[in-house]
Amino acid sequence: MGPGQPPSRPPRAPKSRTLREGDWDEVKPYIIQYLKTRTLCAVINDIETQFGFIATERQYKSALKRWKIGKNVTRQEMKAIVRKQQFRNLAEPEQRPLTFRVRGEIVAKRKIDRFMRQEGINHDVLYCPSSGASTPNSDEFSCQTAPETLAAIDTTLSYSDDVAATQQVEPPAMAVREPSLDLATHGVLSATLSLPPVHHDPVRTDLWSSVGDTTLDDIQISSRVCHDVRQDNRGSHQRLLMMDAAGVPGSRGLHNPPAAPEASDNERLAFYQRVLESLVAGKTGQERTRLVQEFQDVIGLITLLAEPVGISLVADLLNCTSVAISDKLAALHPAIDVHSFIADDLFRNFLSDQGRGVPAEFWLDEQLHHRKIASRCLTLLSRLQRDICDLNNPGSRRRDVDEQQLERRLPPSVRYACLHWIHHLVRGKAQVRDGDETHTFLQNHFLHWLEALCLLGQASKILDIFRPLRLLIKSGYSIELTSFISDAESFISNCISIIEAYPLQLYSSAIVFCGESSSIRRLFAHEVLSVLARLPRVGRPWNPCIRTLNGHEKRTSSVSFSHDSRLLATGSYDKTVKIWDTATWKCLRTLVVRSLVATVIFSHDSSFLVVVADRNVDVWHTATWRRAQSWGSESEVRCFALSHNSRLFAWSETYGTIEIKDVLTGRLLHILTGTKDSHSVVFSHDSTLLASCDGGDIKIWHTESGQCIQTLESTRYSHSIIFSHDSRMLAWVEWTDTECDDFFDGDDDDCIRIWDMVAFEFLQIIKPNQSRPVSLVFSHDSSILASASLDSTVRLWDASTGQCLQVYTGHSGFMQSVAFSHDSSWLASGSFDDTVKIWDVKPETYQIQPQYAGWNKGDADPLVSLSPDTELVASASLQSGSIRIWNATTGECLQRIRQQFASTNWICFSQSPYLLVAECRPGIHNIWHTTTGTCIQTVVSAHTSVSFSHNSQLLALPVKSSGSLDIWHVATGLLLDTLHDCQDDIAQTMISYDSRLVACVSKSGTIHIWNIARGELTRRLEVCLSNDCEMSSPAFSDDSQLLASACLCSIKIWDIESGRCLQTMRPPFRYTTSWNIASLTISRNSKLLASLDHQTVNIWAIETGYCLRTLSFDYRIYKVSFDPTSRFIHTNLGVVALDLSLTTETADEMIQRPRFQGYWLSSDQSWVMHGSDKVLWLHPHYRRRKLGVAIEGSTVAISSGSEEVLIFQLADCGIV
């Protein structure tokens, strides 16, 4: 090329030949098949070598685009993937993650993460792209929930065009890998064998297809045959030639094109038969038997497994090593493509059905093999033990478990066995009986198995896994096993809500609250955690409350089951409606409305949900949970009803008439006149009648004509009207008086009336004994009527006899709504305590109770007190007056004392555990001997207290209206002296620590100090000049030199010897009015003073008169004392540390929550705590608005409102 001449152009490449669509038909299926495991360049070379088909890379890509086949994910598809993934992760965090497929290929998580980084998408924010991110064509794009085996780690692999098919893909660091099949070799071998396409079982196909071909490294049963093929191609080639000679279709050598991949079921069955025959072709004797047995053991077992597994799991099930399984698969693999066969439903049926032509020696006894797998699973589970992950702390949460520890302690084989051992028993049609392997396992490892399932996050499935076992019981031979299974089902229902989050509560709370009659408690008492030194006596039967639903922030106003009982809707005053899945009791959806929710109602076909909130009625589609329709009202909607056929609805506004409208159009059909301010309306089950009540008369209307056909007159307040499902009965509630002093106490004449719609007469009048009902519902068979009451109870009544069948207790707030499930097996109740409880309605558990004393009467709102030596516990009711003395060690009731008056306001032991003082009414005290249960003395005087000496030898009793004081010797009952000279009645008394002095506080505000030994008045102190100022009990210092007194306006410290007031303490700033000091206590060193005001304890510096700290408690405090070091105070709720070293800058900083040392009860009453650690979960049945709690050292006594008292002897906490 000369200077100045333009450079010569390179020769143009020859133009590629034009390819029409028909030219691709022959090679198209093989291109698609090869692309699954190879790069595009490798596919082009292989197609050119085998078929002589020549095309450029660009032509290949154009063809793939036309066929809508490609490995690259478009931007639109990736946006849709990110949007769905972010919604699942942020809006539904309790669900497992999603996996995505685009054109049949799984999209790797690393690709999604890379796209999010490139686009700057935040992982913690919902992704809301433009409309271009709508979900692509469903034929090319799909997403599904990842299998549980893959939920913990991302094991999805993907191959791009620039990655060779034989490239080794490194697994994530946290994953445990097993021997895997080389993908390239597997692809060649599969293509060479050319197995016909299989039709998979829907369940197994879902399990396998959710993982895909590219996840063989994680779950595929693999073999070392790939290594053998790479090392010895000659041997592999010879085996293929043998297959060709045996007539296996498609096995015509490595370089011959395979047959077309389509075949009928008959052709596939014939192919399977030839494959099995070729496996033992030319084999005789022991070698033939060995091959058949290995086939039965390995391939037979794999085809029966419930989910994809790893090679180590198969090895564990066969009780051999992974190497041995690999060797067996290596011997079988030349004739069988394991990956294609194990998910094939037709192949599995072929093996187990002799009528399909399977060779007799290969026939698989499916039931026998299922039983063998179940037996091996039980052997694996027998290795389980208590606290298998070494959590140690009974309050450890499941989410705190180390994943690596969980992988080591619960390997895949044990996980599989936990989930599927009962499945294999059922599929094997096994019969279980007393003393067999299943019964023995349950007796030894039932709790261990439950713990493992909880650790694996499968707690919600425990009942579904366990219940089929009942179907396998052999009648007549399984009395003990039948009882155990029934007990176990109740045990699971009773504790599932806590063990799901705190697995180790299986060995403490779950066993404690299952009742002494439970076989679970008897069998596993030795498994109780060491924190429980002794199991408390819990004599009550199983708690029928199977679940407590928490989530609403305010009172629950309405509950409703869907007709299929799959959903439960709960409405609340927090302006939300929650939708619960009754299979798992998880909240599926939260609907936000515009006002306080009054009513929620499902339609009969469960297709929509009606929500009534103040002036609005909204209709929500249950398929999409979107608001479909909304009706507004000018005033509050007082009542609402939906007809059973879902065509009509009736409502009434405040002080308005009742309107009947069409649901679909909202058209007004009828206006029912003659009523005003209706409180309740209800349709009959056949939708032909409507009943209403306006606080008085009951009216029955014809829905078609709108005419009133009957009026039932009433002079009482009527409400909560309800039809039975057969429309033969109408029930409502009548209250005698709504203006009584205590609205919630009810009246003896309050009742539930049941009207017979056929005979036109009253069928029953039920009087619930002052348990004021607020809501009614009939069971589906109309035989049971359930009522919710203001005393926090739910009652079941026999509709025909009016007899009370059952009383459910457990709510701590007033009831407002109840609802039966469609099959009447569950009852849901909503309460003002912000919870919803689900009750298991079992007729065999009914306890006939013609009269029941509930919250307003009987043993409710109890008191409990521990003796100083913690050997005895006393409990009493605020209203029934009964007192019980318990042995704190054994939990046995030693004495039951009934007082003259049906109330007890206060109880306390003296320093001696043999004397108990009980205040039955203000100014009336009974002194009881705890051993004999006899009353030693009764003191009757208004505003009077009694006082024991510290050694319990002396008792000071004021004499009514005399101004004198009697000193009694407790042991002999002798009157030692009578002290006179008080001008007014004595209100309070206190004996000094050394029993030398006694202080008497008169109603006029004067304190007289007497010398007991000499019987003379030593000092007279003017505490308060106001005649109407109420005085509290005084307190001596340990050295009897100081005296503390308190009235409504101040606390004063006195020097006893001189009678001088040393210090005056005024109420802290937060007391806007007068305070009410219940008791005073001076520390041992006479430097600190503690004043008790109901639930508040103030700590004062005696020298300066400053309030150093204010401790605010959650429960009633009636006992306060300092420890010898003055670093702790002892209360009936536990030991509280005093941290007075911190300086307080503001007055608010003085108010602190108590910092307990040792055992105490959490503020929500749900946990017995030790320091900051959760120790024992308290069942909701034992939680009340006013709970009796007494804690001293390692003894915890809790009284919940019934006659029983829980007494826990816990491990020694080591606190002074």
Show the helix and strand layout.
Blueprint: H1 28-34, H2 40-51, H3 57-66, H4 75-91, E1 98-102, E2 105-106, H5 109-119, E3 141-145, H6 148-151, H7 183-193, H8 202-209, H9 216-219, H10 225-231, H11 233-245, H12 265-279, H13 285-304, H14 311-317, H15 322-332, H16 338-341, H17 345-352, H18 366-381, H19 403-409, H20 412-427, H21 437-455, H22 462-466, H23 479-499, H24 509-512, H25 519-523, E4 532-534, E5 545-549, E6 556-561, E7 567-572, E8 576-581, E9 586-592, E10 597-602, E11 608-613, E12 616-621, E13 626-632, E14 637-642, E15 648-653, E16 658-662, E17 668-672, E18 680-683, E19 689-693, E20 698-702, E21 708-712, E22 717-723, E23 729-735, E24 751-756, E25 761-766, E26 773-778, E27 784-789, E28 793-798, E29 804-809, E30 815-820, E31 826-831, E32 836-840, E33 862-866, E34 872-877, E35 882-887, E36 893-898, E37 906-909, E38 915-921, E39 924-929, E40 935-940, E41 947-948, E42 954-958, E43 965-969, E44 974-979, E45 986-991, E46 997-1002, E47 1006-1011, E48 1016-1022, E49 1035-1036, E50 1042-1046, E51 1051-1055, E52 1060-1065, E53 1079-1082, E54 1088-1093, E55 1096-1101, ...
Helix pairs in contact: 10-11, 13-15, 14-15, 14-20, 18-20
WD repeats: 549-590, 766-807, 808-842
Organism: Metarhizium anisopliae BRIP 53293
Domain Clr5: 22-71
